[in-house]
Amino acid sequence: MAALSEVVGSSRHDGMPAAVARPAIRAGARAALLLECALVFGQGDGVRILHTSDWHLGQHFMGRSRQAEHQALIDWLLLQVSQHAIDAVLLAGDIFDTGAPPSYARELYNQLVVRLHEARCQLVLLGGNHDSVATLEESRPLLAYLGCTVVAAVQEDLSRQLLTLRDKAGQPAALLCAVPFIRARDVMQSQAGQSAEEKQLGLQQAIAMHYQSLHQLALQERDRLGLPLPILASGHLTTVGASSSESVRDIYVGALDAFPSNAFPPFDYIALGHIHRPQQVGGQAHIRYSGSPLPLSFDELGQSKQMLLLELDAGSIASISPLNVPCFQPLCSLRGTLADLQQSIAAALAATPAGQTLWLEVVVEGDDYLSDLQSRIQQLLEGQPVELLRLRRARSQQRASLQAERSTLDELSPQEVFERRLALEQMDEALAADLRQRYRQIVQALQEEQT
């Protein structure tokens, strides 16, 4: 196996990748270098790695561009890199919101790479289920010259997914098993006659085997280096017990769509993406979702948006600290009767920073159907620095059937539309369950075509 510490995940700050700029070290000099590395590693102030995910560059929030927010996010990130002396940034999937991101999203992507390179900070980008493998691959070789490692998809050569993260002096600080979103076709072959549950169980076993193989490769590399390096891993998937939000898309089809956390090998830290709510998995402090840095739907407004700062010292994870991401665009969701809303809207506007426009969702409660509801709410907002992005009525149990008829497609998910159509048919539950399964498979196939 090639000396990964000399090839993968390392770069010189003059812009030339180590694999090009530095010849392989001869065996005689290697022992002396390893001793020097160990001394440097033991004397440092600790290596700092920032875990983030789910940026969704190019996302539109109810038809509004997030470009200004993402620009502010990059500026804020560079400030954290400087203030906290961060050595590496790990973005665990869903870099872009779609497989064909708009040009401004690509510009922000390139800006992120260049500015972190100028800050002498390594960057590792992992593909997510929203990302196109082809889009990420097209610039991967070029970005390698800027200290950025892109792992868009599972690699046939596993050594390409084993990266060495380095400190500011260029010495090995940690090994990273860089796992992106795992597509079923990348790790298993479908067999005729399998049930959905059998396919899901087979996929879980294949994912577990992928992590096991990488972990074993990392152990071998650590032994070869002779350094007490922590072994980290990334992932872009749903684990058992994770709590999601309405903007999170189901990745895998079937009942067994969550990967059990006890199937992970004993990594020192697992940096996860896909779930937008920051959280530990199963109460285990070393398995974490960083969450998305921006709220991607109104139901994420109550969440703390953060990135996770890992400090490595003496070959272990010394600390994990959240860095709270500020709000770059005021958002608010208000719920109440028409009488209540006038006061709550005034309070929300009073809390909006001067010079900024509030993006607002209003949920009107009450059983009375008002044909002029839209105009009434607009009158309350007239002349104020606010944009009404969504107006909907609360669905009370007493008026559920009436509200269902008047619901707009904007208020319904594709699954809800399917369920309503299904409810119009007379069929047994077994057939209905089979149709639901087939529908999910079709949706997943379409989503994979887009990425």
TrEMBL record:
Which PANTHER family does UniProt cross-reference here? COMPONENT OF ATP-DEPENDENT DSDNA EXONUCLEASE, NUCLEASE SBCCD SUBUNIT D
Task: Give GO terms: molecular function aspect only.
Answer: 3'-5' exonuclease activity; endonuclease activity
As for family, the record states: Belongs to the SbcD family.
How it assembles, according to the record, is: Heterodimer of SbcC and SbcD.
Q: Which Gene3D superfamilies match?
A: 3.30.160.720, 3.60.21.10
Write the protein's name: Nuclease SbcCD subunit D
The entry's keywords: DNA recombination, DNA replication, Endonuclease, Exonuclease, Hydrolase, Nuclease
Gene assigned in the entry? sbcD
Q: Which SUPFAM superfamilies match?
A: Metallo-dependent phosphatases (SSF56300)
The UniProt record lists the Nuclease SbcCD subunit D C-terminal domain at 327-425
Q: Where is the Calcineurin-like phosphoesterase domain?
A: 48-174
Tell me the function of this protein. SbcCD cleaves DNA hairpin structures. These structures can inhibit DNA replication and are intermediates in certain DNA recombination reactions. The complex acts as a 3'->5' double strand exonuclease that can open hairpins. It also has a 5' single-strand endonuclease activity.
The GO annotation for biological process reads: DNA recombination; DNA replication
**InterPro entries, per database record:** Calcineurin-like_PHP, DNA_Repair-Maintenance_Comp, Metallo-depent_PP-like, Mre11_N, SbcD, SbcD_C
